[in-house]
Amino acid sequence: QVQLVESGGGLVQTGGSLRLSCAASGRTFSSYRMGWFRQAPGKEREFVAHISRSGSTTYYADSVKGRFTISRDNAANTVYLQIDSLKPEDTAVYYCAASRFVSTAFTAYDSWGRGTQVTVSS
Predict the structure, then answer these.
(1) CB of 83 within 8 A of CB of 118?
(2) Which of 36, 58, 60, 82 could be 69's S-S partner, Cβ–Cβ 3.0 to 4.6 Å?
(3) Measuring CA to CA, which residue among 13, 7, 4 is closest to residue 91?
(4) How many other CB atoms sit within 10 Å of the CB of residue 76?
């Protein structure tokens, strides 16, 4: 497993942008597929995006497609989530996670960070 620490969340206005980062410990980061999930108050954790081990392949939830961009820097052991055109419904705690598999299911991810809060004001 890897240890993951998210950062970059905050309070932004509708239409604003944020760049979330997730720093991983350990020397096996590049062997993991990485994903971002989010959880709003009173709602289940939902898939946002995932990225392949090399970073060449990405996949997004329909609700964020065209506004969110996932990327990774294996040399820096970091995965990013650029979030643009923020909407109030994007308000949630955002988590990064690591998996050996390609999946949108949170059960496929076995390492999780503690999350970073994103709040979008209207």
Answers:
(1) yes
(2) 82
(3) 13
(4) 12
